[in-house]
Amino acid sequence: MLINSVILVLREVLEAAIVVSVLLAVSRNLRLSTRWLLASLPVTAIFILLFSSNLDAITDAFDGAGQEVVSAGLQIAVFAGIVGVVFITELQRSGHVGSLRPLPLLMAITVICAMIREGSEILIYITAFAASGENGAAVFAGSAIGGGIGISLGVLMFAALRAVSAELSARLCVFLMALIGAGMVMQSTMLLEQVDWLQPGRELWDSSALISEQSISGQLLYAVFGYEASPGLVQVLLYAISVVLVALAWVLPHHFAGVRDAH
Amino acid sequence: MNSIRTYLVIMLMAAFSLVSFLAALNGYLSSMAEAEKMLDTQLAEASDLLMLSWSGEAAEPSPNSSSDILVFQVWRDGDLLSASPGAPVAPIGDFSEGYRYGNFSGYRWLSYTRLAGDGTAYMVAERADLRHTVAEKVVLESVVPLLLWLPVSAVLVWLLVGWGLRPLHELSRQINTRRSDDLAPVTLDNPPVELLRLIDSTNSLLARLSAAFEREKHFAAHAAHELRTPLSVLKVHLHNLAEELPADEPALIHANAGVERMHHLVEQVLDLSRTNPELIVANFQDVDLHSLAQRITAEAWPQFAEKNLGLSLEGDEAILRGDPALLETLLGNLLDNARKYTPAGGEVRVVVERRPNAVRLLVEDSGPGIPTGARERVFERFYRSVSEEGNGVVGAGLGLAIVRHIVEVHKARIELGESDLGGLAVRIDLPLADNRG
Fold first, then answer.
1. What gap in Å lies between CA B333 and CA A96, rounded to an integer?
2. N or C: less crowded end of chain B, CB within 10 Å?
3. Where in the cell is it found (chain A) (predicted)?
C-alpha cells in the first residue's frame, strides 16, 4: 500500500512541482516578484476543497463524463497558460518594453489550474483511506514520501535552472514548458478518449515492452511528459501541434521584433 | 531567494529529503522482499509441520469457511482427508509442490503444497493481504520515524546554517557600523577561507581609498600654501605700481581685484583642507560661543562701518564642545557673506541663544536673501549665483561650503530661512551633548 501511495502522490505532485519550479525560474530570470505564487496558494487550496467536496456533482455532469472533462479542461488551461507565458516572456526579451504586466496573473492562473486537479486527487485519496481506517499509516507515510520526493525534485530543478546562465536557463525553461505543456495535452486527450469525447485513431506504435505504462518509470513519465505506450494517431498529432504552438510562441515575438527593427 | 540562509536551508532540506525518502523507499522495498521471503519460508515450514504432525485421522472440513489467517488441507488420491476449521472443501493449492496464489472465502491467499512420498498433499494457505499488511507494518516502524524527525532536522539545518554564516554577519556588521570616515582595515578572528579573499579585497579597497583621501587633502593644503608666497610677492609689486600709476588706472584696479579674489580663494581652500573630521573631533574643547562671537564681531566692525552697515550681537554665555578655530571660521564666513550681500545702510544681527539641547547661532541680515530654490545649491563648492557674479562681489563660492563642512564636523544642523530684517537668516543648532567626548 505504501508503494502505491508513493507512486500516486508522486505522480501528481511531480507534475505540479515541475510547472511551479519552471514558472518560478522564469519569474526570477525576468526579475519579477514571486508574490504571485504566494497569492495563488490559498486560492488553490480553496479550489481544491471545492473540487473535492463537489466531486459527485462534477462526476455526474456531462452524462457521467464530468470528472474527465473538467480534468482535461484544466490541463488544456495549463497548456494555454504555458503558451501565454512563453509568448509574453519572449516578447519582453525581444525588446517590447512593458509587456510583462499580465505575466504574474497568468502564471498564478496556470499554477492554480495545475494544482487543483492534482491536489484534489491527493486529498480524495488520503481522506478516503483516513475514513476507512485501513492502512492509514502506510497511506500517510507513502503520501508523505511521494509528496516529499516530488517537492524536493521541484526545488532542486528550480535551483538547477537558477544555477546556469540566464540565457541557458531561459532556453531550458522554454524546453521544459514545451514538454510539460504537450504532456498536459496528451493526458487530456487520454481522458477525453476514456469518455468517448475523442477517437484515438489507429495505434502508431507500442513501446510497452520498453517502458510499461504500469511500471514506476512509466507512471512518472506519464506525469511529466504524458507518456503513452501505444498512442493513437490523434494523440500524436495533438502532441506535435502542442509542441509547435509553444515553439511558435517562442519564435514569433523575435520575428516581429526583427520586422519592426527593419522598418 | 534574497536570504542566503533561507536559500541554503530550502536547498539542503530538498536534497536531504530526496535522498532520505529514496533511501527509505529502497529500504522499504528491500525489507518487504526480505519479509516476503521469510513468510514464504514460514509457510513451507508450516506445511512440513503439518506433514509431521498429522496423525492420519480424517476430519470433516467446514462448508462455511471463515476468513481465518492460516488454513490447511490434507489430500490423497483426490480425497480431502483433513482440513482446518476455516478451510474450504475445494483444494486450496496445487497438487504439485510449491507456492500458488488463489482466491477463496472472499480473500486472496498464498498456498504452499508439500507432497509426501505416498502422494499425500499437505496444503497450507495464508491470507495474502494480511501477510503484506504484517510485513508492511514491520517496515513502516522504521520509515515513519524518518518522516516524523524531518521537521527536527529542518530546525537543526536552520540553526547550523545560521551558525555557519556567522562570519559573514560579523563582516557585514563591521562594515555597516563603522563611521563613514573610518577607513581602517576590516579584521575577523580566524576567518573562513571563503571570506579571506573578500576581506583582502575590501581591505585593499579601503587602503586605496584612504591613500586617495590623504593625497587629495595634502594636495589642496600644499597647493594653497605654495600659492600664498607668489601672491604676497604679487601684492607687493601691485602696491609699488600703485605708487607710480594714477589711482583710477583701470588695469591696476582689475589686477588688484584679481589678486584679492585669488587670495580669498587660497585662504578658503586652506580652510577646507584644515577641516579634516577625525583630526578635529579629537581636539574638541569647551568653547563659549558668545564670547567668540563678541571677538569676531568686534574684529569685523571696521569693515561693516566702512560700508555703513549696522552690526549687533545678542545673547549670553553658551558653552559647547567644539573647535574654536573652526567656529571662528564659520562665524567669520557668515559675517563676511552678510557684509558682502547687504546693501549699504542695512543691518546685520548675530544672536547666540542657549536652548535645552543645543546652542543656536543666528546670523541674519537685511540683504536680498536667497530664493528658496537656490538655498540647497549655495552649499555646493564653487557655486556662485548669477546676481553675485553680476554685482562684482569678490568670492570663490566656497564660503558656505566651508560653513556646512564645519557644521557637519560638529554634528550640528544648519537651516537657511527668511530673516525678520528682510534678508537671509542662517540658523545653526550646535548640539551640547553629542559634542562631548
1. 56
2. C
3. Membrane
First-to-last alpha carbon distance for chain A, in angstroms, is 65
Cell readout for B85 is: 476449521
**Chain B environment of A159 (Cβ under 8 Å):** 11, 14
**Total number of domains constituting chain A:** 1
Task: State the CATH class of domain B4-151.
Answer: alpha beta
Per the structure, the complete domain to which residue A218 belongs is given by 2-262
Distances (CA, A) of B245 to A50, A247, B235, B249: 105, 91, 15, 7
Instruction: State pLDDT tens for residues A200-236.
Output: 777 788 888 888 877 778 878 887 787 888 888 888 8
Measured in angstroms, the CA of B355 and the nearest CA of chain A are apart by 50
Query: Measured between CA atoms, how close is A183 to chain B, in angstroms?
Result: 24
Which CATH topology does B280-431 take? Heat Shock Protein 90 (3.30.565)
Domain boundary assignment for chain B: 4-151, 185-274, 280-431
Cβ–Cβ under 8 Å, residues A234 and A192: no
Architecture of domain B185-274: Orthogonal Bundle (1.10)
E strand spans, B325-392? 347-354, 358-365
Residues of A with CB under 8 A from a CB of B: 1-3, 6, 135, 137-138, 141, 144-145, 148-149, 151-153, 155-156, 159
- Across the interface, which of B14, B140, B143 has its CB nearest the CB of A152? B14
